Structure formats: C-alpha cells, structure tokens
Amino acid sequence: MATKKFLYVNRTAPHGSIYAQESLEVVLIAAAFEQDVSLAFIDDGVYQLMQNQDTSGIGSKNFSPTYKALGDYDVSKIYVEQESLELRGLGKDDLMPLTYEDEDDDWAEKDSIHVVSSKELAEIIDQQDVILNF
Questions:
Q1: pLDDT at 1 over 70
Q2: Contact of 109 with 100, CB cutoff 8 Å
Q3: How far is CA 115 from the centre of its chain?
Q4: Half-sphere CA count of 113, side-chain side, radius 13 A
Q5: Residues 41, 92: contact at Cβ < 8 Å?
Q6: How do the domains of the chain map onto residue ranges?
Q7: pLDDT tens by residue, 4-52
Q8: Which end of the chain is more exposed for a tag (fewer CB within 10 A), N or C?
Q9: CATH topology assigned to domain 5-133
Q10: Count of CB atoms situated within 10 Å of the CB of 62
C-alpha cells in the first residue's frame, strides 16, 4: 500500500493561538511514524519561521527552535508562499535556516525551505492525499 502524502498548511501567526504549536507537534508525530509529510506556510503562517523570535514580552513559550528538529525527522519539504512573504515585507533571509541531510547525496546538508509562488503551491496542494489546515 502506497504511503499517503500529508500536507500541513499553516496560516496563523506563531503566538496568540495554539494552532502553530499544535501543527508542529502533529507534524513531528506523523514524521516519527514515517509518513510522507510536507508543510506549507501562507498568510500570517510565514511568521512561524521567522528568525530570532523573542516571546519574553508576551508571556508565551518560544517553541520556534523545535522547527530545527524537522530535518532529523526527514521532513524536508517546507513550502513558503512568496506572495505571503512579500505582503509582509519579508524575504527568505528573514526565515530561520532549516536543513536536512540528503542520504541520496552522501548525506549533504540541504535547505528544507522552498519559497514558491501561489501557483506553484496550488500545484503542490493538488498532489497531496491529505491536507490539514492550522
């Protein structure tokens, strides 16, 4: 039986609700069970991947360092919508570096984040079996 492709779509800011943290926890659990996992970050969800997050002023736990564990779980397909970045005055350099080791390329460290257009993201979404929105 073929493995189903799961896409977790993250639309919300990292703090102020439980959606971002819950999505990350569910992704890590699914990946631990060797599911084919991808993530998409659109709208305010792009803020989840911002570098140097500081939550001390809002009394919320900073869970953003956990994203760096995704590569250890073989999660290497992280899509960020270009238009969402641009509307917020952001670019790829504003995002934390997330990498994985490619076993097919002598364990070379490669970038997990792929900035894609909304059209490209629509094509990626079309290829998925299960889509979960957060």
A1: no
A2: yes
A3: 11
A4: 21
A5: no
A6: 5-133
A7: 999 999 999 999 889 999 999 999 999 999 999 999 999 999 999 999 9
A8: N
A9: Hypothetical Protein Ychn; Chain: A, (3.40.1260)
A10: 13
